[in-house]
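## retry 2 of 3
previous attempt timed out at serialization; input unchanged, resubmitting
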Amino acid sequence: MASEKEEEYFARLEIERKKKLEIERQKIIAEEEKKRLKELHFMHCPKCGMDLKEIEYNKIKVDKCFNCEGIWLDNGELESLINLEKKSIDKILGIFKR
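## retry succeeded, writing output
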């Protein structure tokens, strides 16, 4: 009887060990996939896929696609633009117009 309980105990330990290993493996795979996707998409236009060029105006960095003329903002940049005076905004928009 003790032998059966020992086997059950060690079987559970083995299952837990394998479960932890699988969870770690899944985390590593997810991190690698996140890194791969970032490398694939970083500084590429979400609309057409071409390279984005960073343009700084008035200490605000804006990502511009010269292929489809898209303008892309990072987190917080829209708020920074909103805080500019209307005249400054008109100047910025004038730079990006064709």
